[in-house]
From TrEMBL:
UniProt cross-references to Pfam families, sorted A to Z: HAD
Lineage: Bacteria, Bacillati, Actinomycetota, Actinomycetes, Actinomycetales
Record-level Gene Ontology MF annotations: hydrolase activity; metal ion binding
The protein, known as: HAD-IB family hydrolase
Superkingdom of origin: Bacteria
Amino acid sequence: MEKTNPEARSIGAFFDVDETLVRGATAFWAAREMFSQGFFSLRDLQYAARQTLRFVLLGENAGKIGEFGDRAAKVLEGNSVEHLLHLSEKVYDQYFVPHVYQATYERLKEHSAAGHQVWLISATPWLLAEVIARRLGASGGVGTRMQVSGDRLIGKLEGHLVHGPGKVKVLKEIAEEHQIDLSRSWAYSDSANDIPMLSAVGHPVAVNPDRELTEYARQQNWEILNARERRDVIRRGAIMAALVVGGGTAVVWSAWKLARLAPRTR
């Protein structure tokens, strides 16, 4: 990694969030908090849990993520931006902090200390992405936006999900606006869906990569960073075993709940 120099601000470090910077799915944490406040039904929460399990165990699926985004937008219709901003702060404090992958977080801090521009690019709701970025001391965060009228959400996405090719578009827009040299920049992600984003920079890093990204990263001689700790591997294995043996939603849900009760450190 380059040392601090007058040109450091022309170098960017772009981070995916879910399963790259933190274990789990930030959108599920938001759904869980909305449920606790009476804005999500149990059915909505169970749906979010199922999609999160698929994501954590099987990797991202563009169709499922799009479906989840549309459904979340409809459920959130009528909520105020102020309320969602407050909820995002709470999600950061209660859920994000205990789930940070320390190895990836150290990379983020190294980039910041070197004077690089650090950006989070995620499919998670835009307010949550902005809050996480601000609280981490990053330059900014870009997430999936929802249409707003006045101070209220109207139940529709604004544009497309920040996912796959959408992330590349965002990355290039940030680079152009903030005069970032992508050939000297870094990008971090866990998913093969982000190969286009990783390929757009000079220093791609596959973090906790899924099978497809692992194979591709090895072929391209990219750096591979395993940020998972022993407890993450045990938790993941326990849930997978429940899926194989039980095969039912109730079993999967129980396994997820048990995994959430596993000891954590801040």
